[in-house]
Cytochrome C biogenesis protein transmembrane domain-containing protein (Methylocucumis oryzae), 293 residues
Amino acid sequence: MNKLVSITLLWLLLAAAALAESPKADLTLSPKNIAQWPAEYTLLLTVPADHHAYLNAGDKNIYIPVALDPDAQLAAAGLTITNVEKPTGVYDQEVAAQVLRGQSEFTLTLAPAQQAPAPTKASVPLTVRYQLCNDVTHVCYRPQTASLDLSLPAVATSPQTSSNNQSQAASTEEQSTGLMDKLLKVFENNKNNTALMFALMFLAGLLSVATPCVYPMLPITSMFILNRAGGIAEKEKLHALVYLVGIIGTYMVLGLVAGMTGGAFNAFMQSATINLAFAAFFAFFCIIVAGIL
């Protein structure tokens, strides 16, 4: 009973940590030259005190750096970022990466994509993705995405041309938007919705069972559960339930740990010693399943 209470409290603490409000950077976008193409803008990123953001992925390529338009939404609007001037940042020996603290300024140049007409919209959204880590507790928070309004140079077009362009764009978007595109759009638009992310990850976990590599394990697992139950129907259901809860619980805990620690979990899993320890751990249980122990 005490173990059940302890496990329940642990799950509650993990859920509270997952739902906790993460610190956010302050982002300000100012036009530098939007009289004509190419247009120039200044992005000011202000990191909260006692925190840092990453300018690059680090020496071990495990961190999530500041990214402008990470999902290439500007390309869908017929635009491209031709140049980005980044701040120098500071190299942090402890995390082995170039980091940003306080205020940092980015300068970006935007132009219509090649063989694409100049956009007729007055503005488009610019997506900025970043990850913050605490300098005191060394906790890295889940990556966050912010959307800023990007004003565009004015383009003189006739009402008829503008109407035709909008109709063609709407038709193309309607044709290209399939089921996967809609799901990806839901995912991108709700990155900060923790409950929805849990639901989507749970659905992805269920779908992962349908992958071909899982098929050979289904009869083996079923036979193992039936043998452990000794032919008793109630025990078969109980063993199957315990197996299901164990699998779901394990992946949920690993997902929470990975999400709350950021790049630290990746570095941990890339250690040769850790991987050898996991190999020995699974080999031990394989021996048990085989009936040798």
About this structure: DSSP finds nine helices and eleven strands in the chain. The longest helix spans residues 233-261. Residues 200-289 form one domain.
